[in-house]
Amino acid sequence: MSIPELIKKKRDGGTLTDDEIKTFIQSVTNETIQGSQTGAMLMAIWQKGMINTEIETLTREMMSSGEVMSWPNEWAGSVVDKHSTGGVGDKVSLVLAPALAACGCKVPMISGRGLAHTGGTLDKLESIPGFNIHQPTEQILEILDSVGCCIVGQTEMLVPADRVLYALRDATSTVDSLPLITGSIISKKGAESLSALVLDVKFGRAALYKDLQSAKELAQLLVNVGSALGMRTGAVLSRMDATIGRYVGNSLEVIESLETLKGNGPDDLMELVTTLGGLLLLMTGLASDQSEGRKKILDAVIGGAALSKFQSMMEAQGVTNETAQSLCSAHTDYFNILRPAEHRVELKTVAGGSVLDVDGLVLAEVLHKLGAGRSKAGEPVNHSVGAELLVSPGQEVKLGTPWLRLHFEDPAPTADQISRLQNALTLGCPDDTQTQPLVQELLLPH
Ligand code: IUR
Prior knowledge:
By secondary structure, the protein is of the alpha/beta class. The protein folds into 3 domains: 3-49, no CATH class; 73-328, Pyrimidine Nucleoside Phosphorylase, Chain A, domain 2 (3-Layer(aba) Sandwich); 343-432, Pyrimidine nucleoside phosphorylase-like, C-terminal domain (Aldehyde Oxidoreductase, domain 3, Alpha-Beta Complex), CATH 3.90.1170. It has helices at 3-11, 18-29, 35-48, 52-63, 92-102, 121-125, 137-146, 160-171, 178-190, 212-228, 250-264, 267-284, 290-302, 305-316, 321-328, 360-372, 415-424; strands spanning 80-84, 107-110, 149-152, 196-203, 232-239, 247-248, 343-348, 353-358, 386-389, 396-397, 402-408, 425-428, 439-443. The relative contact order is 0.14. The mean pLDDT is 95. It binds 5-iodouracil. 5-iodouracil is lined by residues 175, 181, 184-185. Residues 175, 181, 184-185 line the site of 5-iodouracil.
């Protein structure tokens, strides 16, 4: 079938055969298809959807469009990774990767950059002087052998079809399609040849999906397709309304991650780290149940083994020994190493009451405008811009209590942005405090 015939078949609601999907993905990879044709096919998929077997084939073909990593036989069963659908203040990977390595896993974590209001693990790590996220495959192997974990960017050779499709999805308003999201996420994890994968699928006002039901639909599809590709795949459905932890912004999130690795982590971050890590240890057989898995991860963090892995990972990825050691020491002055923002301002409460809510989306949107995030792929970010939340839900505050410390440079926040931030804080009566579970549900592998 020709490409126009394939587009017509999907446009009219047909089911593409394995060979037809293969033809489409190969022509994307070889660049023999026109951009307009790819755009039309993406829109046809967005509108008509795909059945499960089509999604599996799409994902498999995308995965095979480039290099598929291979690992030494001794690592069989222990190569793991996690993926998050994106959040505000989401620094889980920075703590989880070294904690898993400390528990005996091999973690070739291939992460992404931030876009719009969501942050990216690679941007966070690049606020550490010298940290190099570009590592060729041979180097990744060496770091996994000596340290057990690395956090790197996608190499040119890994899933080239996704690079093309992702850029065109952005340009054709076809990002929010379940088959296309699944193909994109799982093909990259499949190319890492993982034994086990855990997905943190978020729902809430600061998440890709606002409601639990849609997030669950995506989570189930990701689990099914990941399993079909031979990875033990589980998912966690977690709430994304406020921020994870108290610090948002690249450098600030590195600080909060290091503090967590030193045993001073906030409860919500620790809950996500132990839940996701516990599930992975269960799936690899390194724990006999979820609670043993959680405990092993907790011990690795509290006992300092994860911190020591993080230090070795920094050194293996280009940070000098002196800097890495200093960042990991007990009473470090982080801003001696991480560049501080030129200005700080504290916002004060305009009434008294009990802290009911902080809108993480508003916080992230304002920080994005102040330079902490990017609007288009390839734009630089300002690592120093961010915010520290100075209050926690349920806390009683008086009028004039500092509740947010903003770190900014140029541009400075406008009066309108300050007012948006002030409105992001909801105060009320203590009786109105509602605590909903952060982790709503787990989807275990079949
Ligand atoms: N992250 C990905 O890797 N792919 C996607 O399609 C989305 C997020 I949305």
